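Could you help me review a protein record that somebody else here produced? My question to you is simply how this chain folds and whether the tokens agree. Thanks in advance; the entry in question is below:
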Amino acid sequence: MKKKNGFRKVLTLGAAAAAGVAAKKTYDYSKKQKQVMAIKATDREMENRSYEGRNAYFVGGGLASMAGAAYLIRDCKFPGEQITIYEGMSILGGSNDGIGTPEGGFVCRGGRMLNEETYENFWELFKSIPSLNNPDRSVTEEILSFDHAHPTHAKARLVDKDGNILNVKSMGFTQEERMSLLKLINTSEEKLDDITIEQWFAEMPHFFTTNFWYMWQTTFAFQTWSSAFEFRRYMRRMILEFSRIETLEGVTRSPLNQYDSIIRPLEVYLRSHGVVFVENCEVVDIDFADGAGITAKSFTLNQNGQEKIVELGEGDLCIMTNACMTDSATLGSLNAAAPEAVLKPLSGELWSKVAAKKPGLGNPDPFFGNAHETNWESFTVTSKGSKLLKMIEDFSGNIPGSGALMTFKDSSWRMSIVVAAQPHFINQPMDQTIFWGYGLYTDQVGDYVKKPMKDCTGKEMLTELLYHLHMEDHLDEIMEDVVNVIPCMMPYVDAQFQPRKMTDRPYVVPEGSTNFAMISQFVEIPDDMVFTEEYSVRAARIAVYTLMKNERSICPVTPYVKDPKVLAKAVHTSYR
């Protein structure tokens, strides 16, 4: 009886929260027409603007900057040849990477999860970007068509130390934990400054042994010491995923890795419009005009050791990637551990300089001050043939591309792997196979390879995995087919989840700014969640529309957390 009453209480709370939304669902048939007319009026106004002598500069060549350039071209009619993107590395895409050769092996530093329901601006933008394979189709159509043909339904989400695939239908909550989770979801963020997940559940250590925690933690890379802010936002934003976390059916697959499927077509689109890319070029400082307000007046470049100052003219824009989660990443190999990172993140250093010059530009210290807490390590396995993937398929029950994260819950590294549909790279031969994995606790000694993960070679990481799969008897024959196993140490990959104050992340366009914006996973966008492709694209759209005074609408965060049906399903899941 207690359980039933508890269920009814939570459902009632959810229904009450949704009542305001549900009552407003009467459809105005003229609304769509008004929106179309408003867009047309805005486009006419943009087309009539003169952009002579005006330039737009983007600092950083990741998804956010590239999306910003696309919005300038598509929605503001800004000439592409007057847009410049500066990138410190030799390759574009930021954290959306996917590189390698058949001879040396391939590497993804991480896998960026897509979601059809909650990536509102991402899908809208990529409807405008032609597919490289079929220019008559958009990238959005290409990805969603592929995903619908290759649906995700993981059958082996958690594996124990004995190699048993666990039944994870039950989240494993106590009633106290359910109510504490509900309370967190409904707590105002103003009351969560610097609070960690561990502190919120301090009286409930059992919470961190539930099926829910193991699955949620490894799906999104949370740590117990991560910010309660971000955990709350994920619970609200991804409440649809909560109800299917045991299968990850909400994961949207791209045909190839995100660099090949997303960044390359976007780059081709931008280059076709004349956008200038300057690679191997670092922006090391930005100066502002004196007085009140925020007006960028110049920035300093460092290219091949030579410094150059670029002056901004009237009407010019400066849009800066204020931090990058894969900054300072290092790569190892089959027989070498990833080198220790140089703990001076380029993007974080620039943010520090900029933040010291004007109020309202945030505080990078909480994010980049503790690499011990913000690091984790990935590894990418390239093999000849499909022997290992077939063994994993037989173990998990999932063909490549149909599963999701498989987590070894008792692993001292908290290790997980993902096997994508093959091929995963555009230049991957048909006789090679690739999969990716990662560990959250890099300082911990392995259960079988008695070394901390951060000190392990690629071969040692694969050995540890094979022991967890209880395939150690096949180790030698599997190793014969291995081309490479590339470890990747990322000291700041979890930095955006660090405990923080409300003021530590700057707004995309800071108060008083005339020509300056910041875009990244480290800006503040109310209600949205970091560590996503959507966050980068939404930030770019906010920056461009605000600075350009474009009246087009930005796709809002879909309020699934106020939908009675979604809430009822989530509550039902919590009681399983």
